[in-house]
Amino acid sequence: MVNKILLLEDDESLNRGISLRLEKEGYQVYSAFCIQEAEQIMKKEEIWLLISDITLPDGNGMEFGRKVRKTSSAYIIYLSVLDQEVDIVNGYDSGGDDYITKPFSLLVLLSKVNALKRRGRGGDGQILASGDLEVHCSTMQVYKNQEPLLLSKKELQLLVFFLENARQIVTKEQILAKVWDAEGQFVDENTVTVTISRLKSKLKTNVISNIRGLGYLWTETAVRK
């Protein structure tokens, strides 16, 4: 839903001030004060926009943003006192759509939120599509030829990673880093091979090619719509 916003900010007064301003404009705001709370909200709600501080009591907001980007098409705006060029660049590189340095005006934040709403992601950006395959990002459901396709969590994460990197060769190391290591799971390369094999079997297609000595390639184009 386009009006659902997750606000991850550990400063209680700032969190409340931002929430009240956004709610006044008609947005539905879910407040979190740590990453653990934010993760629980992301599991239950179809979040359209994540507004996140970077320095949080239980972790780094950018790292959380990277995880969100793997499984959701939600926009991300970072809020931070870190105002060096390298900090801002890191924010965008971690999947952020905007980066606002503290202190800031609530009107500026609201303007940026409204701009994202006007922009949209193609359609509403909630669907990743390639050939006869669709991943509905808001619900993480997969359809092939408009029929539901049941995948395990890792198979689904792997599929999303391939679609987001369609027509690009990705190495086993990159897949491990994005699909497993990001959750603190350390596995060997054989796990990647086995999971890809299972995914290919369920997709019943040869769209995933093994490029000997280099990695894997999703051979078709993929789009958001």
UniProtKB/TrEMBL annotation:
<feature type="modified residue" description="4-aspartylphosphate">
    <location>
        <position position="53"/>
    </location>
</feature>
<feature type="DNA-binding region" description="OmpR/PhoB-type">
    <location>
        <begin position="125"/>
        <end position="220"/>
    </location>
</feature>
<dbReference type="GO" id="GO:0000156">
    <property type="term" value="F:phosphorelay response regulator activity"/>
</dbReference>
<dbReference type="InterPro" id="IPR011006">
    <property type="entry name" value="CheY-like_superfamily"/>
</dbReference>
<keyword id="KW-0597">Phosphoprotein</keyword>
<feature type="domain" description="Response regulatory">
    <location>
        <begin position="4"/>
        <end position="117"/>
    </location>
</feature>
<dbReference type="GO" id="GO:0006355">
    <property type="term" value="P:regulation of DNA-templated transcription"/>
</dbReference>
<keyword id="KW-0238">DNA-binding</keyword>
<dbReference type="InterPro" id="IPR036388">
    <property type="entry name" value="WH-like_DNA-bd_sf"/>
</dbReference>
<comment type="function">
    <text>May play the central regulatory role in sporulation. It may be an element of the effector pathway responsible for the activation of sporulation genes in response to nutritional stress. Spo0A may act in concert with spo0H (a sigma factor) to control the expression of some genes that are critical to the sporulation process.</text>
</comment>
<protein>
    <recommendedName>
        <fullName>Stage 0 sporulation protein A homolog</fullName>
    </recommendedName>
</protein>
<keyword id="KW-0804">Transcription</keyword>
<dbReference type="GO" id="GO:0032993">
    <property type="term" value="C:protein-DNA complex"/>
</dbReference>
<keyword id="KW-0805">Transcription regulation</keyword>
<dbReference type="InterPro" id="IPR039420">
    <property type="entry name" value="WalR-like"/>
</dbReference>
<dbReference type="InterPro" id="IPR001789">
    <property type="entry name" value="Sig_transdc_resp-reg_receiver"/>
</dbReference>
<dbReference type="Pfam" id="PF00486">
    <property type="entry name" value="Trans_reg_C"/>
</dbReference>
<feature type="domain" description="OmpR/PhoB-type">
    <location>
        <begin position="125"/>
        <end position="220"/>
    </location>
</feature>
<dbReference type="GO" id="GO:0000976">
    <property type="term" value="F:transcription cis-regulatory region binding"/>
</dbReference>
<dbReference type="InterPro" id="IPR001867">
    <property type="entry name" value="OmpR/PhoB-type_DNA-bd"/>
</dbReference>
<dbReference type="Pfam" id="PF00072">
    <property type="entry name" value="Response_reg"/>
</dbReference>
<dbReference type="GO" id="GO:0005829">
    <property type="term" value="C:cytosol"/>
</dbReference>
